[in-house]
Amino acid sequence: MKIKRYEASSMEEAISKVKADLGPEAIILHTRRLHKAWPFNIINKSAVEITAALDINVSQPKSNGGADFGEADGGNIVLGERFDQLQLEIDEIKSIVKTIAGQLTDPLFQEVPACFLDVYEKLLLNKVDDDIAKKLMKSAQEKLTTSQMADPDMLQESVAREMAQLLPVCPPLTLADGERKVVALIGPTGAGKTTTIAKLAARYSLYEGRKVLFITADTYRVAAVEQLRTYADIIGAPIEIVFSNQDVREALERHDDKELVFIDTAGRSPHNDAQINELAGLMNICTPDEIHLVLSVTTKLSDQMHAINRFSSVPVNRLIFTKLDETNTPGTILNIVNKVKVPISYLTIGQNVPEDISIAESKHLANIILGVPLDE
């Protein structure tokens, strides 16, 4: 018996290697998942290892006048080598049996069907909570036939559909004729509020011809004011810098002809009660129609959840997730919306204004969390 191991990035590729090397008569003895760290990558890439065997008939017909196997010169040496090889193969089989026996008692092996392991591991690598990942596997399994589960593409598509139902989104900002809306973006320092508000304003001003006003309360950072002023000059929109609640009232009255008012706020530390209370007071004065909490997906989940809890004194009704192009773990988005039940409005995927922002779509976001490249 000839026993060999094969590694590949997927089960299909590994089986192809087995067939190419050992032929269609090969027997699969064991499969397992591998996790390999790739250079310059903060996540592990999954791989597959297959152990396969081929039964070889080693007895050969003896030619007329030929010597017996044991009588040939060096026969004892050959016999010894074959015995050693047989012993190695027996040891290999014992190891495989031991590994399989361990897997059969592994809770993961019992909870997640083998055909779902590839997708399940993608979700875990992308930092989806284990309980949510298992829930998705169970929901998808209930809706697929046995033959459908044998198709990796159909299986992943089913999981994506189930995940999309757990990703609430809301329609993009719309305006009826003669309507005016006030939109505020709030969030922790460094989340990308100023760039995001510029992207939104540029889209509605340049593409839809809406009259736009910028109001910035981010007077703590000179660079932020200058950055927003630059964007305002580019799209030909006025900008008001406010230092008090009275400034806000006067700015809104002065520009009562503007259809869209975008309010950029200073980044607030979730640990600073005074700053959070000041922000809540500002929202009470300008009474926004939409308040978007901006969160960077590059921030660890515990810090994001802490920020959400601390900003709860402000009536947030939408979430914007930024910097999707800078993370390998977009699954935290699913974890967050599963807890807070606030819909997602927009996603940002770069620094270009106004291009790198997109309306949140459940199915597209599900594919991102499953590891499908952003441009597909």
Summarize the structure.
The chain is an alpha/beta fold. The chain has helices spanning 11-22, 75-104, 107-111, 117-125, 130-142, 146-149, 152-164, 193-207, 222-235, 245-254, 273-286, 301-310, 332-340, 362-369, and strands at residues 2-8, 27-37, 44-54, 181-186, 212-216, 239-241, 260-264, 290-296, 318-322, 344-348, 357-359. It starts with a strand and ends in a 7-residue tail after the last helix.
What is the CA-atom radius of gyration, in angstroms?
A: 30 Å
Beta-strand content: 15-25%
Structure class? alpha/beta
CATH architecture of the largest domain: 3-Layer(aba) Sandwich
In the sheet with the most strands, the strands line up as 6-5-7-4-8-9-10-11
Strand segment tally = 11
Helical content band: 40-55%
Structurally, the number of domains stands at: 3
Report the top-level CATH class of the largest domain.
Alpha Beta
CATH fold topology of the largest domain: Rossmann fold
Describe this structure in words.
There is one protein chain. By secondary structure, the chain is of the alpha/beta class. The chain has three domains: 1-59 and 69-105, no CATH class; 114-166; 181-369, Rossmann fold (3-Layer(aba) Sandwich), CATH 3.40.50.300. It contains 14 helices and eleven strands. It has helices at 11-22, 75-104, 107-111, 117-125, 130-142, 146-149, 152-164, 193-207, 222-235, 245-254, 273-286, 301-310, 332-340, 362-369, and strands at residues 2-8, 27-37, 44-54, 181-186, 212-216, 239-241, 260-264, 290-296, 318-322, 344-348, 357-359. It has an eight-stranded mixed sheet, with helices on both faces. It has a three-stranded antiparallel sheet with strand order 1-3-2, with helices on both faces. The model is unreliable at 37-44, 58-71 and 103-109 (pLDDT under 50).
